[in-house]
Design goal:
Strand content: under 5%
Radius of gyration: 20 Å
Distance between the termini: 26 Å
Largest sheet: none
Order of helices and strands: HHH
Structural class: mainly alpha
Helix content: over 70%
Number of helices: 3
Amino acid sequence: MDTIRELFYGNIHPYERDISKDSEGDKLNKLIIRHDAALKATLNEQEVEILEKLKDALTEQSSLSECEGFVNGFRLGVRLIVEVFCCGE
């Protein structure tokens, strides 16, 4: 029950992940930042604003997708637990 309470009180953040230095995620983030800066250097102010709105929408879409994946994974885990305790042979 402690894990559920910790989750309820916001002490557990399943969506947060640390990215280790020189990991694939770190390298990808650096690549994205470099390409973003290079692209912005070629755009005017209005185009930069559109790019920022696009990035915000992509971030929101990614968050929704991650949330859905978390929910689906949690549900699957609960179904597995129920099957083990209720219907196991």
